[in-house]
Design goal:
Blueprint lengths: L5 E4 L7 H8 L8 E5 L1 H11 L6 E3 L1 H5 L8 E5 L16 H16 L5 E4 L4 H4 L7 H8 L6 E5 L4 E4 L6 H4 L5 H19 L5 E4 L13 H15 L4 E5 L7 H4 L4 E4 L2 H12 L4 E5 L4 E5 L16 H9 L3
Parallel strand pairs: 1-2, 1-5, 2-4, 3-4, 5-12, 7-10, 8-9, 8-10
Antiparallel strand pairs: 6-11, 11-12
C-alpha cells in the first residue's frame, strides 16, 4: 500500500517540538514524512538533547516533480538564524514560520498530500492578534469559510463554537448559522473518517442554561436550532448544562460535545485525558492536526516533555 506523506511544519523554533519529534520517529510509522524546518536548528537541538536523526535533504520543487525518495524523513531546509539551540520565543521567528506554512500549503495544493501537522506556535507573537488561532490562520490561507476545531480523543471529543475569543465577545458569535455549520462539518467528518453518524451533545451558554437577562441565548437561539437539526435527523441533544454534561453517566452518551466557548469544553477534556488528545481542523481542503499544547518554554532542553499528543497526531494521519 502506498501511503501519502505526512507534511510537518515544525512551528516555533524555541519549543519542545523537536524533543517530541525525536521520540516519536522511533515508533513504527508507515507514512513518509516531509519535515519543513531549519536543518541547523535541528542539529543544534539534537546535540543538546543527545539525540541522533538522519534525513534526506530536498526541496518543494523536487518533491512536486517526484524526484526525491519519500521512503524516509525528507527535510525541506528553511533558513533560520539563531546562534544557540534554544532561546526565548520572539517575533524573530515569524518570517521563518510563515515561510514553512507557505511551502506546506503549496505542497498540499499540488496534491502531494492531504495531511498536515504543525508543531506548537506562540499565537501571541506569530499571529499578532490578527487571527484567534492557527485554525483561523489556515482557514484564511486556504480561503476556507466554514471550518471547525475538534479536540479529539477516541473516547470523547469536543468542539468549541468560538475559539480563543475573549469572554465578552462570545455571546455575539452565538447564532443559528454558526451552530448549524459546525454540526454539519462534524457529522460529515465522522461519516468519512469513522463510517458512522456522530452523537453530539451541545452545552448552553449560561450557567444551568438559565439567565437573569430578558434575552436568554439558550432558549432563543440554541434550543430552537437544535430542534431544527433533530428534525433533519442529526443525532444531537441540548442545550445541556455545562457543569454536568461531563459527568461520567452523561458524557458516555456522546461522541463529541460542542461548547459555546474555548475553556468551557477544553478544560474538562484536558482534565479527563491530559496529553491524550489532538487538535484537528476540519473543513480545510486537507486534514490538519496538531498536538494539543503550546511551545512550553519552561521545559526547553530538559528532555522531559510528554510526546503522547504528537505521537497521536502522527498515528491519526498514518494512513
Amino acid at each position: 500500500m502506498n501511503y501519502k506523506p505526512i507534511i510537518i511544519v515544525a512551528g516555533e523554533p524555541n519549543s519542545v517540538f523537536f524533543e517530541l519529534f525525536f521520540k516519536v520517529i522511533k515508533k513504527k510509522i508507515k507514512s513518509p514524512i516531509i519535515l519543513i524546518a531549519s536543518k541547523k536548528l535541528i542539529l543544534k537541538q539534537s546535540k543538546i538533547l543527545k539525540k541522533k536523526i538522519s534525513f534526506n535533504i530536498t526541496n518543494e520543487f523536487e518533491i512536486m516533480k517526484k524526484k526525491t525518495n519519500l521512503k524516509k524523513i525528507n527535510l525541506i531546509d528553511i533558513d533560520f538564524k539563531q546562534t544557540s539551540g534554544f532561546s526565548k520565543v520572539t517575533s524573530k521567528s515569524n518570517h521563518y514560520i510563515s515561510e514553512c506554512f507557505d511551502i506546506a500549503i503549496k505542497l498540499l495544493k499540488n496534491n502531494i498530500s492531504n495531511k498536515l501537522i504543525n508543531g506548537p506556535i506562540s499565537k501571541k507573537t506569530f499571529l499578532k492578534n490578527k487571527y484567534n488561532g492557527i485554525t483561523e490562520y489556515l482557514a484564511d490561507k486556504t480561503n476556507t469559510k466554514k471550518f471547525a476545531m475538534i479536540i479529539y480523543n477516541k473516547n470523547l471529543s469536543v468542539c468549541p463554537l468560538t475559539t480563543h475569543l475573549p469572554i465578552k465577545y462570545i455571546s455575539k458569535e452565538i447564532n443559528k448559522s454558526n451552530i448549524i455549520n459546525k454540526v454539519k462539518l462534524i457529522d460529515n467528518f465522522w461519516k468519512e473518517k469513522f463510517g458512522k453518524k456522530v452523537k453530539i451533545g451541545v452545552t448552553g451558554l449560561n450557567p444551568h442554561c438559565e439567565s437573569i437577562d430578558n434575552f436568554n441565548e439558550d432558549e432563543r437561539i440554541i434550543l430552537p436550532t437544535i430542534k431544527n437539526l433533530k428534525k433533519l435527523k442529526y443525532n444531537i441533544e441540548g442545550p445541556l448544562a455545562a457543569d454536568t454534561i461531563f459527568l461520567k453517566n452523561n458524557r458516555i452518551k456522546f461522541d463529541l460535545i460542542i461548547g459555546m466557548y474555548h475553556d468551557q469544553v477544553l478544560t474538562p477534556l484536558k482534565t479527563l485525558f491530559e496529553y491524550d488528545a489532538i487538535n484537528i481542523t476540519i473543513g480545510l481542503p486537507f486534514i490538519r492536526v496538531s498536538p494539543d499544547h503550546g511551545p512550553n518554554e519552561s521545559m526547553l532542553g530538559k528532555n522531559k516533555s510528554n510526546y503522547l499528543s504528537l505521537l497521536n497526531s502522527v498515528k491519526f494521519l498514518d494512513f
